[in-house]
Amino acid sequence: MRRKRASSFIIDFIIMIIAFAIIKNVIPETNYTKKLKAEENEIIESYTAGQINFNDYFKQYSEVKYELDKQQISVNILYLVFVLLYFILLPFLWKGRTLGTYINGLQIERFDKGSLHIYQLLIRNIIVVGLGYLIVSNLCVFILPKKYYFITISVVGLLQVVMAIFSANMIMFTKEKRGLQDLISNTEMTRIIKKKKAKKH
Q1: What is the pLDDT along the chain (201 residues), one digit of tens a residue?
Q2: How far apart are CA 109 and CA 115, in angstroms?
Q3: Which sequence spans correspond to the domains of the chain?
Q4: Residue 165 burial class via C-beta count within 10 angstroms: exposed 0-12, middle 13-18, buried 19 and up
Q5: Helix 73-84 and helix 2-26, axial crossing angle in degrees, nearest 10
Q6: Is the separation of the CB atoms in 57 and 150 below 8 Å?
Q7: End-to-end CA distance of the chain, in Å?
Q8: What are the C-alpha distances in Å from 157 to residues 25, 56, 80, 175?
Q9: DSSP state letters, the chain
Q10: Is the Cβ–Cβ distance between 48 and 69 less than 8 Å?
C-alpha cells in the first residue's frame, strides 16, 4: 500500500508539472516580467556573493517577488484552477480517484465509509499538493503590502513543506498508514474493489 501511494503521488505530481508547464507556455511572458526575473536572479547572486547584507536582500527580493507574482497572476490563477479540477473535482466525481490512484488501484474514501465531500478533498490537498500556498498567494498579492506579502507566502510555503514531510513520515512509519491529510479530513486511501459479475446459469 505504501509503495502504491508513493507511486500514485509521483504520477499525479508529474501530471501537475506537465500541466503547469503547458499553462506557463500558453501565456507568454511580458518584457516587464522578464526584467523582473532578471532582477530576482541578480539580487540572489549579489546576496550569495556577499555584496549585499540580509536586510537589503530581504527588502529588494520582497519587492521584486511581489511585483513578479502580481504580473504572473493569470498564470498563478490557472495553476490554482488546475489543482482544484484535478485533485478535488475529479476525485469527487470519480469515486475518490485521480489518474495516479486509479493506475495503482487505489481510491480516497471517508474513514467512516460515508459519502466523500468536497471539503474533505479540499483539506487533503491543502496539506499535500501545495493548494494552501496557491490560495494564499493568489489572494494576498492584492491585499497585503509587499513586505508582508513576502513574509506571509514564505511562512505558508514553509508550513506546506513541513506538513507534507510530516504526513509522508506518518504514512511510512505508523501502523495505520494514515497521513496528516487523512486524519484531519477523516479520509483514508483504500484499494479499489472490483465488483464480480454474477455468473449466469
Answers
A1: 778 888 998 999 999 999 999 998 888 889 999 999 999 999 999 999 999 999 999 999 999 999 999 999 999 999 999 999 999 999 999 999 999 999 999 999 998 888 899 999 999 998 888 888 899 999 999 899 888 999 999 999 999 889 888 888 888 888 888 888 889 999 988 888 765 444 444
A2: 8
A3: 2-191
A4: exposed
A5: 150
A6: no
A7: 37
A8: 24, 22, 15, 29
A9: -HHHHHHHHHHHHHHHHHHHHHHHHHSPPPHHHHHHHHHHHHHHHHHHTTSS-HHHHHHHHHHHHHHHHHHTHHHHHHHHHHHHIIIIIHHHHTTT--HHHHHTTEEEEETTSS---HHHHHHHHHHHSSHHHHHHHHHHTTTS-HHHHHHHHHHHHHHHHHHHHHHHHHHHHSSS---HHHHHHTEEEEE--PPPPPPP-
A10: no
Give the length of the chain: 201
Q: Which three cell numbers stand for residue 1?
A: 500500500
- What does pTM read for this prediction? 0.83
Cell of 162: 513541513
Residue linked to cell 508547464 = 21
Q: Which three cell numbers stand for residue 139?
A: 489572494
